[in-house]
Fold this protein.
Amino acid sequence: MTALLDARGVVKRFGGLTAVDGVDIGVGAGEMVGLIGPNGSGKTTLFDCLSRVSSLDAGSVRFDGVDISRHRPHQVARLGLARTFQLIRVYRELTVSENMELSIQWARVGPASLFGRTDPATRRRAESLLEFLLLSRLRDERAGALSGGQRRLLEIGMALMSEPKLLLLDEATSGVNPTLVAEIADRLREVNANGVAILLVEHNVGFVAELCHRVVVLDRGAKLAEGTPGQVMEDPAVIEAYFGAEGE
Ligand code: ADP
Ligand code: MG
């Protein structure tokens, strides 16, 4: 069986710094995989490469049988790969509903027609996702007025608008209060149960252990370990990377 996402030897440099250093990572259809690692280990940069927000310096990325190593982000979105960002990206001046509706125009046709009309099917999908994410009563609020956790949920909803096969989530729980963290975990479990594969970057290791079938650990841009949550948490190299270094 071929993986839904299959990235090989991904390298990304910033000047003299190699932020991602030859990483292989794969996600199977319907799988939920965690990507963890200390601050600065290259998780977001790897996500940027996988979702084609950044160019690769070496390596390749295949998604659903297509080589996307040189695709543009909206082309990747159209193939069924959606992502969220560590620093939330919503249009703060627009309403929750408007944010949902705009996100799909981007995925479908690219930046050129962002301001086209919203069709009824799109509006219905936005409504049902907002309901699923418990955001219905906030549909006419400006996105800028939401709490951090509500904005995370909105961003997940925006990513789900295009009915992706794979969802890349960068720090879905950062700045979110514990009640909402449990809510996000529930929602993600349900999204995954409906067949959407998820690759989850998290600093919250417990959250990953609870949700993921498999975990990949990055350290200084390279893959340090991979396995079930249990295997990875007991790996001495992982413990050293997390607790051996100062400041973590
Ligand atoms: P993580 O998400 O695991 O915390 P990042 O991918 O954000 O790690 O960062 C990995 C390394 O790359 C860090 O040393 C960071 O400072 C560096 N880095 C990330 N983005 C840039 C950039 N645009 N320019 C220069 N260095 C960067
Ligand atoms: Mg990051």
Q: What stands out?
A: Residues 1-80+165-243 form a domain with the Rossmann fold fold (CATH 3.40.50.300). The beta strands are 5-14, 17-27, 32-36, 58-63, 66-67, 81-83, 166-170, 197-201, 214-219, 222-227.
